[in-house]
Amino acid sequence: MESISANIVDAVAGEIFPATLTVAEGRIARIVRETAPCEHYLIPPLVDAHVHVESSLLTPAAFARLAVAHGTVAAVADPHEIANVMGIEGVDFMIEDGARVPFKFFFGAPSCVPATPFESSGATLDVEAVTALLRRKDIWFLSEMMNFPAVISGDGEVLAKIRAAHQVNKPVDGHAPGLRGEPLAAYVAAGIQTDHETLTHEEAAEKLALGMKLMLREGSAAKNFDEMADFLASHPGRCMLCTDDCHPDDLAANHIDNLVRRAIQRGIAPLQVLQAASVTPVRHYGLPVGLLQEGDPADWVRIDGFESVTILETRIGGQVVARDGQSLLEPEPAQPVNRFEAVATDAETFSVPHSGGQVRVIHALDGQLVTEAMAMEPKVVGGKAVPDPDRDLLKLAVVNRYRQCPPAVAFVHGFGLQSGAIASSVAHDSHNIVAVGTSDAEISRAVNRIVHHRGGLAAVRGDTEEVLPLPVAGLMTTVDGYRAADSYGRLNAMAISMGSRLQSPFMTLSFMSLLVIPSLKLSDRGLFDADTFSFLPLQLRKE
């Protein structure tokens, strides 16, 4: 048995008091209140309420090693990235790898594999497969239902997946960017309970009024926390905190602790913030995560106070897993699993014949998953439309990684590259190869670096290159998370040195093929209008 004295931050009862905790066999056996204040505070453990672990470029065990240093002990994780590549085999990999560390992963059954029928993925999870997953004890919820048009229109297969979750009393996560009015009401009425894609106060208020819980998100690409943070004060029991997608350099620097810190600095009461950071996700999903109550698992975070919220120690089941900002979990290298059939390309593969007139252009927005649609006159050389870095009109390509076929090619504005190209096999949600560059030759070279490693991130310019191989499903590295963070930092730095104006060029690139987020995206099958869920020709018709 072990006794620990501290100021207890009880976010369940809504009070703070000095006490001595007795820990036995990994649980809080007793809490005895004291009269004299203590130096430090124990707060409930932090929970990332919605995250795709794969987007950290780390395996679950490696993700955990970084996260515990920031007071995170649990993650509600949607494994649909690897499921789109490898199906149930990929989901099993995530669960088994996560079980190698004491961190508490709670994986869901991916609801949209493939995310849409308008792209090529490596697997399909039909109603039967999703139902079988939901019946497993190691699956906790139905992952975000991204195909909101199918829900609203009453698609039988989509609704059957939702019913399968309800039948086993497991929550259903949502994905409803910009959805309002009758379509939103129909979406919620189908039994969907959460949303992490809310962009405005008006949208948030409407979703709350319909009974949804809001996940306030701050990821590497989508940064919506500041816009939504005030709901922590007005609806602390209806809000959760999440990252959604968090690249390794950001995870090495901070995690949910950063959102807690920022919310308190805004003047929101710590007990309200911690209710959203811990209590609400634990109760919503029914997680076996301790909340500093007698009989709970001995999960908590020791901090110095609420001015800096410095993480001094993280415990899971009584075990100290991080101290003074340093993780105590040892690196756990994974054995790669993968599906990757793409072959090397040449520059001619990406040429675009053009006879005149404007082309549709994707406008990439910094810090957002959404894009805008533009039209521009391309630069034409020898009857072919080519990139024009002077106007930030670059070429974007998606190469099918699951079978050999011609790439889809379009144009994009907003990346700002003045030379070279970058490419990635992390391309939501089907994870084909996506590349953007200033010439066909550079795009081909960047793509070929990805092909050579059977997955990865690459930046090339002339004779210079930076590559982070991702041999686990083309999504995750086998190296330690801190090394991955350094490598990813070098990749971003090289992209910025090539002229990119984006905070996170590779993260933004990875969402250029995400068809379920408006407005204009690129599938491996062509240019796609995410507002109407239909393909568009690259070239606009001449009047």
Number of DSSP-assigned strands: 30
CATH class of the largest domain: Alpha Beta
Task: Specify the biggest β-sheet.
Answer: 8 strands, mixed
Report the mean per-residue pLDDT as an integer: 95
- CATH homologous superfamily grouping of the largest domain: Metal-dependent hydrolases
- Unreliable spans are none
Give the oligomeric state: single chain
User: If strands are numbered along the chain, what order do they take across the biggest sheet?
Assistant: 3-2-1-4-13-14-15-16
Strand proportion, as a percent range, falls in 25-35%
- Span between N and C termini? 81 Å
Helix content: 25-40%
Content-based structural category: alpha+beta
CATH architecture of the largest domain: Alpha-Beta Barrel
The rounded Rg comes to 23 Å
Shape: globular
What's the structural domain tally? 2
Number of helices: 16
Can you walk me through this structure?
The longest helix has 17 residues. It contains 16 helices and 30 strands. Strand 20 and strand 21 form a beta hairpin. The strands form seven sheets. The protein has an eight-stranded mixed β-sheet. Helix 2 crosses helix 3 and helix 12 packs antiparallel against helix 13. It has about 550 residues and is of the alpha+beta class. It folds into two domains: about 240 residues, Metal-dependent hydrolases (TIM Barrel); about 190 residues, no CATH class.
